[in-house]
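tool=predict chain=A
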Amino acid sequence: VQARERNARQGVGIAASLEEAVADRPWVVLSLPTSHEVRNVLAEGRFRAGQVIVDTTTGDPDETEECAREA
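tool=predict ok
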């Protein structure tokens, strides 16, 4: 825990949760293994209105478009 807090203060490391990672960011870049993981992350509903989500996942383009319509 101490290392995570120190890293957070220094702006390095991994956030404790998705919510903490995206809470105050105007945009978020996703780069996940498949569209399935993207759908799961988006389904968590941790993003806010107006936030830009850039998905660089090498997934199924049709499924990616469907995720965008649902978001």
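The beta strands are 27-30, 52-55. The mean pLDDT is 80.
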